[in-house]
Amino acid sequence: MENIVSDRLIIRKFKENDWHDLYEYLCDEQVVKFEPYDTYSENQAKEESINRANIESFYAVCLKESGKLIGNLYLSKEDFNTFELGYVFNRKYQIKGYATESAKRLLDYAFSNLGARRIIAMCSSKNTRSWKLLERLQMRREGMLLQNIYFKTDSNGQPIWFDTYEYAILKSEWHKHYD
Ligand SMILES: CC(C)(COP(=O)(O)OP(=O)(O)OC[C@H]1O[C@@H](n2cnc3c(N)ncnc32)[C@H](O)[C@@H]1OP(=O)(O)O)[C@@H](O)C(=O)NCCC(=O)NCCS
């Protein structure tokens, strides 16, 4: 993959030595609150950056000016030319428009270069920042699944159930919005 460049950002493949910037946000409880994993240790972040450098689905989002890795996008190919989008950003670099700017470019790339026909995303109904991002990308809310999943347990070991919003956008809808 060639780097994708936007006004303020570079979207590129992960490198094995990205672990320090990756650790900076994956060690943050607030950042992983709605993720299917707990906070990472330094060693786990080292292993994870090697893993991400060797698989297709993870994209590092970096500041154009400094090269600092500030978060990641995830885009994984499913059946029927459908791709699933995900995203996690360092708290210091949230609410600045970086997630929207990078996801918009990646979706455009997926529809134009990866053969995507439909892109979907799922998030907890409680993760307002996440579904607001999906709506800024013009994705449609297609459904809400009640208590369909849990990633974490409470202090008594009981599941913390999430209600999940499902979002999607078709290639035809994307071009209607953005061409
Ligand atoms: C989900 C997540 C990526 C959303 O990030 P975000 O910071 O809300 O999204 P953006 O980076 O696009 O920022 C948009 C906000 O920046 C504001 N903003 C500030 N400066 C801006 C600028 N120069 N340009 C554009 N927007 C700007 C926008 O107004 C918008 O604010 P609003 O939502 O209050 O209207 C982020 O909350 C996150 O990483 N969370 C933790 C991981 C997670 O939960 N992932 C999803 C699991 S389903």
From TrEMBL:
Pfam families: Acetyltransf_3. Keywords: Transferase. Gene3D superfamilies: 3.40.630.30. Residues 9-172 form the N-acetyltransferase domain. GO terms for molecular function: acyltransferase activity, transferring groups other than amino-acyl groups. The keyword Phosphoprotein does not apply. The keyword Repeat does not apply. InterPro entries: Acyl_CoA_acyltransferase (IPR016181), GNAT_dom (IPR000182), N-acetyltransferase (IPR051531). PANTHER family: GNAT FAMILY, PUTATIVE (AFU_ORTHOLOGUE AFUA_3G00765)-RELATED-RELATED, N-ACETYLTRANSFERASE DOMAIN-CONTAINING PROTEIN. This is Protein N-acetyltransferase, RimJ/RimL family.
